[in-house]
Amino acid sequence: LGYYWETKILLTAVKLDVFSAIDESPKVAQDIASRLRADGPTLLLLLNALVAMKLLTKEGDVYGNSSSTTVEL
Asked: Most buried in the list 4, 20, 59, 65, measured by CB within 10 Å?
């Protein structure tokens, strides 16, 4: 059951384009929500879930892409 929820969380993040919204410079949740035109408190739940999955990093109130989500072209 755990993998199901992790998959849903990841698919939601991809659909919202969370990783591109964060880009290369870490941002606070409100800035990310503004870029995505998303509800701040709800997005915060998603961001924290992505941190738990080690797809995002979090230092204080600032979220960044982890090394596993950045791809060099």
From this structure: 65
Listed residue (20, 9, 7, 8) closest to 51, CA to CA: 9
Helix, strand, or coil (residue 6): helix
Highest-confidence segment of 3-7, 20-24, 44-48 = 44-48
Torsion (CA) 71, 48, 30, 66 in degrees, nearest 10: -20
Residue with tokens 């892409």: 65
Task: Give me the phi and psi of 17, to 5 degrees please.
Answer: 70, 40
Instruction: Supply φ then ψ for residue 3, to 5 degrees.
Output: -65, -30
Treating both helix axes as pointing N-terminal to C-terminal, what angle do 40-52 and 2-16 enclose, rounded to 10 degrees? 130
Three-state DSSP state, 38: coil
Return d(Cα 10, Cα 39) in angstroms, integer.
18
